[in-house]
Amino acid sequence: MVDTITASTVLGNTKTETAGSRDKLAKDMDTFLTLLTTQLKEQDPLSPMDSSEFTNQLVLFAQVEQQIDQNENLEALLVSQVRSQQAFATSFLDNYVEVESNKVMLDDGQAVFTYGLSADAKSVMVNVKTEDGSIVRTFEGDPSAGLHKLTWDGTDNLGQTVDDGVYKLEVTAVEQDDAEEPMETWTTSLGKVTGVASEDANTFLAIGDLSVDMNTVLGVFNELPMDDVDGGDDLGGDETEGV
Questions:
Q1: In the chain, what are the helix, strand and coil shares in percent, each to the nearest 5?
Q2: DSSP label at 161?
Q3: Gyration radius of the chain's alpha carbons
Q4: Among 10, 21, 169, 207, which lies 20 to 30 A Cα-Cα from 98?
Q5: What global pTM score does this model have?
Q6: Which has the closest alpha carbon to 138: 161, 157, 158, 154?
Q7: Can you give the residue ranges of every domain in the chain?
Q8: How confident is the model over 138-194, as pLDDT tens digits?
C-alpha cells in the first residue's frame, strides 16, 4: 500500500541544498572581504592596486546571490504546486480511473483492462502474468485496430481462482503479411483509487497495491465501466470481446 508523503518531506532535500548554497556564499563573501581589506591596508600608496578585479568579484557574488534567490522562489512555487496537486488528487479517492499501465490490480476477483492495436493484426494473444513472469491467464484478443476492453474474473487457465494483487499485462500481436510498419500495442488498466502519495514532487494514486503516476490518468468514473466503449455489449470474464 502507498503511504502518504507531505510536500515538505518531498522537497526537504532541495530546500536543504539551497540553504547550504546560501551559507557557503556568505562564508565565501566574508573571506573575500577579509582578503580585500587586508590587501587594501598593505598596498603601496604610490602604486595602488587595480580595483577592476575586486569590482568584478563583487558583481559575481551579487549574481550568485540573485540566482540563489531565484532558486528559492522556484522551490516555493514547487511546494505550492505539489500541495495543489495533492489536494486535487484526493478528489480521485473512491472513484474508478483508467490509467496507462502494463499492470492491473485484481480486486475481489475482478479486473478490467484494455489493449490497443495501431493496425489490424492476424491474431492477438493477451497474457496476464504474475510479477515473476509466470502466465496465469491467456485471452485470445480481437485483432482489429483500435482499443479493446477485457474483464477478468480472477481465474487462471485451469479455472482455479488466484489471489488478489497486481498482475502484469503482455500483448502479443502477429502482424498482417502486408504490414508496412511494426505494429504498436499498448495497455491500460482500470481500478478504484484507494490512496494518494507524493514522491520527488510527483503525485501517485494507489489502486489497491498498484501505484500509478497521476499524470497517466485517462479517465475517471463513478463506477467500474463494464460496458463496451463503442457499442454497449457487456464483457464477460470467460471470453474476449473487442471494444
A1: 35, 35, 35
A2: B
A3: 29
A4: 10
A5: 0.63
A6: 157
A7: 7-92, 96-221
A8: 999 999 999 999 999 999 999 999 999 999 999 999 998 876 677 899 999 999 999
